[in-house]
Amino acid sequence: MKSAVFVGFVLFALVPLINAYCWQELLKFGATHCQDDVDKTWHAVGSSWTNSRCDQCRCSSVKSCCSGLPSVTVADDCTVEFDYNACTYEVFNKKDRNIKCNYSAVGK
């Protein structure tokens, strides 16, 4: 019974992580660099960077990254366009880009 309660508690504690916008990866002992999972570039311990998907990362004893762009929800007649060079986004009507749309965003 105690085991079942413990497992249930652990699974319950993980629920908020399902939609998390940040993640971490422990480095191997003595590592001097982190590798970006998206761009496959290497970054020295103590550095920070933004990758081509706009994730903002930092390399220390762990590699930690957070999404630089939110998850955007729009109405059916609207669309979201991400600019991965500027790490920005625009929400507009599918038929007329000049008509801006209301939206909700989760994350950054």
Automatic annotation (TrEMBL):
Q: Please spell out the taxonomic lineage of the organism that makes this protein.
A: Eukaryota, Metazoa, Chordata, Craniata, Vertebrata
What organism is recorded for this protein? Astyanax mexicanus (Blind cave fish)
The family assignment reads:
Belongs to the beta-microseminoprotein family.
Q: What name goes with this protein?
A: Beta-microseminoprotein
In the UniProt record, the signal sequence range is 1-20
Q: Where in the cell is it found?
A: Secreted
- One GO cellular component term noted in the UniProt record for this chain: extracellular region
Which residue stretches, if any, does this entry annotate as coiled coil?
A: none
Q: Give the UniProt keywords, A-Z.
A: Disulfide bond, Secreted, Signal
Note the superkingdom of the native organism: Eukaryota
